[in-house]
Design a protein that fits this description.
Two copies of one chain form a homodimer. With about 325 residues, chain A is an alpha+beta fold. Chain A is built from ten helices and 15 strands. Chain A is globular and about 65 Å long.
């Protein structure tokens, strides 16, 4: 399909690159020489799945001005788009393999932008041991970029961790601190920006829980990544498993930035628990396996928190704060339910 | 990730559906009950690959006003987006399996639109024996829709048909008539629209060459689907295979509409050979296998045409028209080379 892509070339003023030059120069190196991707010259990629493994597939679209700030740095966009997908693979217990990259450019994208974007992806590929298997580069009738990634991971057959596998009595375990991304977004929307602000950086650049897939495959009954908000995503698990859930906000541990913002009254535990984009994992783990899981996670430099329990009390959700039960409801912010 | 999706509900004025209601009502049925897709409630889908098979993956993005007309009917958008991907799978010799659907809505999309879009996809699923394995629904800062599909197919290990497999002496075979889509687009841009015009319908609704994958796996050395234009896509094969190519335009057979437009001077053989969006296949086939291939294709209701030959004459491309050699060049329209 003729895409009408038009990238303003660096150097010569007025010169431009067509789709094929762009693919060859910037995107083909992202295949990391994998023969199945054929340097992005075939109509599709061929992906061999090792015997005994299943494929896990996930997609996320990121739109400028919706999922990242207008004018965000290309390297940040690249890293975030990839990492939100890797986070989904992590929550399924899958080891990342490769990804398809579909990118719709506004008119007159510039080569320098592409260079920074693809340079960052190359670094991500190396960091996570993955490659780009294919995709599409197009132009869009808009001033804003739209980017879709479909990521692929491998999991031993039958070992994928689903949302619906929690059992009554399972503990709800969170892999780390939440709230930083929501605080970071709040600061950005208030016009505060600083590369030294950890909360802002955590919003802009998620740190997906890649590398603990064997722990998930071995011990975890159900999981979700914290993208919609910790409470909402924990409830996704409870719902899919047909269980009730009690979450104890007093068990949360926050970063120094979030703690300070809560103390100052600029932020709240509730906002930390319901804001999105944390990319920690929430896990359902049977009590008998808890000790092993916590040990293995700490060995992986994580600080897991036991923050709740799945119950057979219908689909009833409740939240404990300051030692008191609070019935879950719209006011707590998980509008999705 | 919070998507900000906002779909205006049918019925109640001012009511709207959030992302989760939209997924449950419209997108979950597209999984056709496949357990690996978990009703779109997991972070990803689990796809089992039968032993002895490889996965073929392809992506196409379609943007309103670029890849289809502004205001195009939702059912047509749905069918076209899926079929251009199925065409890529067909050219690789892969049998379609499933797809990820990433759709970015402009503000205030309406439920009636969604209903028509997903209704058409459901029909396509049944027609092609496929299902939706997952995806993402988001909102975009634009008045125009953007849609990405990543499609998956299966092929016996080692049997995927690549672009780089042509051999000197192979014949170039085209699976049918080209030019209709380019003529249809020309008419649409001139403001002519008619549901009864076959050329326009062929632009709006491609007919991918699904169902002949076993012929490709068994006999074909290299293939591409005709999306950029028949000459450009044939040259992709030659380039990837390190060969020269002679194409004889006199061997092309056109539809009645295209033939008539050429006679009237409104269109040309060159335009038919260089316009895009035909979604026929161009194939490299060794002379010894030609008879069998033509017979099997005719048994599948195709009208294949032998229109050229791959040569070991460097990367030299030439075109024959009215019995005379014409050197390939910019004037012939394949700007990609």
């Amino acid at each position: 399909m003729v895409t009408g892509l038009y990238i303003m070339a660096g150097g010569d003023k007025g010169a431009h690159m067509d789709e094929f030059s762009v693919i060859e120069k910037y995107f083909a190196p992202l295949t990391m020489g994998q023969s199945g991707a054929a340097g992005l010259k075939d109509d599709g990629a061929v992906i061999a799945i090792p015997e005994g493994f299943e494929l896990v597939v996930t997609s996320d679209t990121l739109n400028e001005g919706v999922h990242f700030m207008i004018g965000e740095a290309p390297a940040m966009i690249a890293r975030k788009a990839l990492r939100v997908n890797l986070s989904d693979l992590a929550s399924m217990g899958a080891k990342p393999l490769c990804y398809q990259l579909n990118i719709a450019f506004p008119d007159m994208a510039e080569e320098a932008w592409l260079e920074a974007f693809c340079g960052a992806l190359l670094e991500e590929n190396e960091m996570f041991g993955i490659y780009c298997s294919g995709g599409d580069t197009t132009s869009i009738k808009s001033d804003y970029l739209s980017l879709s990634i479909t990521a692929f991971g491998l999991v031993p057959c039958g070992k994928a961790v689903r949302r619906g596998g929690a059992k009554a009595g399972d503990l709800l375990v969170l892999t780390g601190a939440v709230g930083d991304a929501a605080l970071g977004l709040k600061l950005l929307l208030e016009g505060i920006d600083s590369a030294n602000n950890l909360a802002i950086m955590r919003y802009r650049l998620p740190d997906p829980r890649v590398g603990i897939e064997r722990i998930l495959q071995k011990y975890v009954n159900a999981a979700a990544d914290v993208s919609d908000g910790m409470i909402a995503d924990s409830m996704h698990i409870a719902r899919a498993s047909g269980l009730g859930l009690e979450i104890d906000l007093d068990k949360l541990v926050f970063s120094k930035d979030v703690e300070k913002a809560i103390e100052n009254g600029d932020f709240s535990r509730e906002k930390a628990a319901t804001g999105g984009d944390d990319y920690e994992l929430v896990l359902a783990i049977s009590e008998g396996k808890l000790g092993e899981v916590l040990t293995e996670m700490r060995n992986n430099n994580l600080n897991p928190l036991v923050i709740g329990k799945f119950t057979d009390n219908g689909l009833s959700f409740s939240v404990i704060e300051d030692g008191k039960y609070r019935k879950a409801g719209k006011g707590v912010g998980w509008k999705h339910f």
